[in-house]
Specification:
The chain is α+β, with helices and mostly antiparallel strands. It has helices at residues 5-27, 66-86, 95-118, 139-166, and strands at 33-37, 41-48, 121-129, 132-133. The N and C termini lie far apart (38 Å). The model has no long low-confidence stretch (mean pLDDT 88).
Length: 167
């Protein structure tokens, strides 16, 4: 079971991402807002044709933007390979690496699904303060960000013992 939990986490992230996007797509009209915490957080239904945080949204042209799809697929293959290796029985990798890769993979699959099926990604989480808005994002983006943070933590943790052994 220990070997397979990261793949279960990947599927869980994918399921929650797809479920939340489906709820937004079917219950909130485009650009409608639902105040959740006035002055801090609202739900707003948007479509992102670019990459993370709408970067390059203006340059995305055709349905599913082939370059973004190819890049996303390549990243997913790399992350899947790294996760598979980290989950081998003989692997001594820390759980943070497996969790990080699972989160990144689940988020990447969720956003790639949208990009292929709809030509853009559903974003809806809008945090703001006093007129300053953080870019609108979704659960998949959150999983990728937390996964990246865990990767950094893992790199720091793995490096620490090596430094202390050199002293």
């Amino acid at each position: 079971m220990q070997r397979w939990w990261p793949f279960g986490l990947t599927l869980l992230i994918l399921a929650f991402d797809r479920a939340t996007k489906y709820l937004i797509e079917t219950r909130v009209q485009s650009w409608d807002t639902v105040a959740v915490i006035p002055g801090l957080f609202q739900i707003i239904h948007t479509r992102n044709t670019g990459i993370a945080f709408s970067m390059f949204a203006d340059s995305a042209g055709t349905r599913g933007n082939p370059l973004l799809v190819i890049f996303s697929a390549a990243v997913m293959i790399l992350v899947t390979s790294l996760l598979w290796t980290a989950c081998k029985p003989a692997s001594k990798e820390h759980w943070t690496l497996r969790a990080a890769l699972a989160l990144v993979l689940g988020g990447a699959v969720g956003n790639l699904f949208d990009r292929i099926m709809f030509g853009s990604v559903t974003d809806f989480l809008d945090f703001y303060w006093s007129g300053h808005h953080f870019p609108i994002f979704n659960l998949a983006d959150s999983a990728i960000t937390v996964g990246a943070g865990l990767l950094l933590l893992n790199l720091w943790m793995v490096r620490r013992p090596a430094e202390s052994q050199q002293s």
